[in-house]
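Translate structure to sequence.
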């Protein structure tokens, strides 16, 4: 397997530039420029917690719906502003060669997925720590969605989302 870091920046486009909930009760404007996504929004005070969540779904059966990353969280009402851009990493080109049958063995020279991730920059985990999601690098084959979610308490919530295209 040959791994190489991307050498050019990503372009990002937004499918729907505005996320709204309940007739302008909460409004988030999303724009993309220069490979970044910029979000600016106002959240009404009637919500308990407002979250902007980025969902990355690479379409792998093991991940199901992909995984979520909370980009911004606001308790009560107010305004927020933030930017997001696809993750790019710098690392030297790597060639990984292994026998698939030995990949998860206890052999000193085996290469498990945790060791591969560590060599690509993922933080090392202690034995008692729960594994956390870590993005080695974003890419074109992943389905990205940004979702605005308002928690109103007592298990009630509203949401609106838009799709991002990374090229």
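Result:
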């Amino acid at each position: 397997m040959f791994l190489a870091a991307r050498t050019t920046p990503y372009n990002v486009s937004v499918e729907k530039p505005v996320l709204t909930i309940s007739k302008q009760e909460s409004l988030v404007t999303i724009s993309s420029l220069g490979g970044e996504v910029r979000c600016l929004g106002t959240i009404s005070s009637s919500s308990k917690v407002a979250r902007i969540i980025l969902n990355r779904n690479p379409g792998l059966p093991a991940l199901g719906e992909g995984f979520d990353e909370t980009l911004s969280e606001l308790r009560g009402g107010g305004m927020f502003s933030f930017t997001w851009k696809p993750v790019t990493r710098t690392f030297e080109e790597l060639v990984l060669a292994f026998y698939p049958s030995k990949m998860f063995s206890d052999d000193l020279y085996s290469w498990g997925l945790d060791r591969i991730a560590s060599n690509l920059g993922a933080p090392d985990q202690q034995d008692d720590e729960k594994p956390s999601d870590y993005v080695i690098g974003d890419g074109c084959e992943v389905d990205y969605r940004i979702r605005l979610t308002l928690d109103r308490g007592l298990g009630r919530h509203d949401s609106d989302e838009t799709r991002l295209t990374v090229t």
